[in-house]
Amino acid sequence: MNFNVTEILEMPVGIGDITLEHLVYFIVILTLGVTVARIVSKNVRRALTDRLPKSERELVTKLIYYVIVVWAFVFALPQLNVDLSGLLVAGGIVGLVIGFASQSVVSNLISGLFLMFERPIKIGDNINVSGVTGSVEDIRVLSTVVKMYDGIYVRIPNEKIFTSNITNYVQNAARRFEYEIGIRYQDDADKAIRITRGVIASHPFALKNPAPSVYVDNLGDDGVNLMVRIWAPAREWWDVRTDLLWRIKQELEANGIEMPFPQRTVWFADGLEVKNRAARKNEREE
Amino acid sequence: MVEAERANGLLTYRRRCGEQTFERILVTKTGEMIINPVEPVNLPKEITNYLQVEFSPMVLEPGTTQTVYLKFPVEIGVFLESAKDIEVLDVFANGSQKYTLYGPQTNGVIARYHRSAVYSEIPSVECFCEGVMELSITNASREWVEVSQVVFDSTDMKIYYNDFVTTTATMNIISANLAETDFVDAPLRPGMVKSVELYAARKIPVINRGYLMEWGFT
């Protein structure tokens, strides 16, 4: 049995005049386009590694990837006898139909574009959007991927992000955190403030300016409460926050200042009569 | 203490600083180790390129130029150099580090902070902790200005050394709240050795463009 390749390639596939050869060419061009897009974007990413932040780098590489893929697709379409000029006429009507049918997709796409231009969030930022807190892993055309702090993957449609309140914890260069530290009434509050300031001053990332503030905030039930407010670089604040509290506690205790335990002094209006049954019994027996 | 030791056929780089030890096994045939002062913005962790030096306030008449000497923090870089490449192995320092915010919280920058007195002549410095910066301040504005801090982009920094570490910088005051700072690629004294730049070693292209202090200098 002989196979004639030319005959096989000229066999119609059953859609218009499209033959197997056309289909093969279409697939080859598209595959070539995707391969070239992957190679180019990979090399661009590698070349830009030291020169651009990750968010910009990913945006540029994605843009290059999709431009090449779309170009390959348009280049391959004539193989399927698709007349692009005809598409222009039909495009309006089809676009309208598709537009109605895929409103959410389009709105996600437009939201994604606005997110990329307005840039309220960037890759690597720590954010909170509609109850999801974590770091931004990727900003895609239709959705944004957030990795929550416990490692859970969350994909949020761009429309939801665009219409929600976005809390970006690292957008500003610095952010503030605070502690309330209680000391006993008999401890010297001025000394405690001085020691706390000293500990803060020794930490590299507790910023010099804006200056930290330490003051007596209120006189609590159990002790004197000091308020400590510290500014730190936004991307380092969690490490500074967890590190400093323990250091302050240790330093205060090393200087004889202790955290008070909950305590309550009870006063009786008529004094307190202490009953000693054993003593009374002895008295009666005598 | 920094040492490179060959034991059991392996070359080990070791640095001890207080209780911390940094150790790497080096595999090299022709490589050389270079140790020199580097831009002081790497410790304890690299978070910024900016260096801020605060000093005693100076009041400058319009049109005047004054050269003063300040102290700046020093960090030591250890590089591995081969015929084709140079790589950073380690950065350490003797002194402590402190950071600050220059400008507003919304769009200001985090900067390495250092406090210095103002000297009219080259001051004596503690080796491996501080260096000497020759700063030429020009008041190009039309009014008297008070200056008490200067902020630099350290990627432009040129460091020279022999007995002590030096750098030369300029500050051009444009208006009451605007100044431009830059580094000059020249040794403070003839015969000083130029440091290998950390940012050049990290292959980040350095464009000498200075830094525009937009949020004042007091």
From TrEMBL, chain A:
The keyword Membrane applies. Residues 105-170 form the Mechanosensitive ion channel MscS domain. The keyword tRNA processing does not apply. It is a multi-pass membrane protein. Pfam families: MS_channel_1st (PF21088), MS_channel_2nd (PF00924), MS_channel_3rd (PF21082). Residues 62-103 form the Mechanosensitive ion channel transmembrane helices 2/3 domain. It is found in: Cell membrane. Signal peptide: none annotated. It comes from the Archaea. Its main location: membrane. Keywords: Cell membrane, Membrane, Transmembrane, Transmembrane helix. The chain crosses the membrane at residues 23-41, 62-80, 86-117. Residues 178-259 form the Mechanosensitive ion channel MscS C-terminal domain. Belongs to the MscS (TC 1.A.23) family. This is Mechanosensitive ion channel family protein.
